[in-house]
Predict the structure.
Amino acid sequence: MRTLISNGTIVTSEGSSVADVLVEGETIALIGADLGGAGITADETIDASGKYVIPGAIDVHTHMELPFGGTFAKDTFETGTRAAAFGGTTTIVDFAVQSRGASLREGLDAWHAKAEGNAVADYGFHMIMSDVNEETLKEMDQLVAEGVPDFKLFTAYPGVFYSDDGAIFRAMQQTAKNGGLIMMHAENGIAIDIVANQTADSGMTDPYYHGVARYSIFEGEATNRVIRLAEAAGVPVYIVHLSSRDALNEVRAARDRGAMAFAETCPQYLFLSLEDMKNGFEGAKFVCSPPLRPKDHWDDLWTGLIKDDLQLVATDHCPFDFEGQKELGRGDFRKVPNGLPGVEDRVDLLHDGGVVGGRITRERWVELISTAPARLFGMYPRKGTVSVGADADLVVYDPNRRRTISAGTHHMDVDYSCYEGREVRGASDVVLSRGSVIVRNGEFTGKKGAGRFIKRSTADAARLA
Ligand SMILES: [Zn+2]
């Protein structure tokens, strides 16, 4: 099967130019001006005049079917990757979970079983480590060899995912040997629980107080601490879902002194705020951790994205229905499942708020949603760029189409949208995953189970660049 994408403006992190792209089988075979005129034939031609042709977006932070607070995140690998594809995202990296007392292997096998035969587009895994001990430290080396080279630990959620400083440092010493990467959820969960309990005990139980109790200073403190531990171990560290200027200041200071500190932020921290958590129990729709911050953090985060103190934007997609799931926390914000839907909207929100909004160039937009994720997470140049030999994960993107985000039209399996009624400029028209068209003009044309596990490399050189 040969597909010719003609006359589009190819946008990569390096630059933009009008050219044709010839896809042969699963990969990009040729890029050049007027390939049709040069006698190149194809089974199908997609006219991309006036559109962008960008590398499929990569979301390195999703939680399909995550067990949390007595329930499960609602999207499966099938519904979640399909919704992602509608939004121009053709690869996700999800978090497999080690249950307390079980092995990393059991956790990873369980996540392979959830994804295999179900995902409609490609996927990889990071590993959430709940126990750090002699056995799991050895297992880390094996996982790195199997293409699962990242390990997420938490300074939050005492009694659940929480690791103390010794456990975190021990895991970092292991990645110093095996080339893996430690990813950190950096909030001081011990201190947060004290404030959260005092807040709830004094009768302030609405979801809004989830946001109030998780001080940004607790995020800044934990961010500094884990970066310092990583410097002591001599390894890179990656801060997930950075939400506040307090944490950003620590990442920037670390990078300025030459530390190997990296961080992502998420659309909810750029476009939503603590104000959204008001309105009684409706605020439960916006309960996630770290929480939404006051609006005055937004500009700092955008500056972080512009100056590369924040290297990419991921979603932390973790959807719970308002009805029946978020409602578990009625009367007690501590019991609201933490997480927001978002895998479908990231590319368009960043295009609208970033490129159309005049904050970033379209090339930086591609870098934040695709190229940097591919580089930092060991998939480049197979993914994350438009180049000969790369996987033909491509999006024909209309930068001028306007659409209104709504739960009534989105494809995520969740009963509300955090961005209900927001109009954005920019939308994916045609989405290819390894050469197959899986979304065309609002219709899904892919296949359940067509997604493959991506064995990722440690990409040391890229990570340190
Ligand atoms: Zn997460």
Observations:
- The pocket of zinc ion is lined by residues 61, 63, 316 (CB under 6 Å).
- The chain has 13 helices and 19 strands.
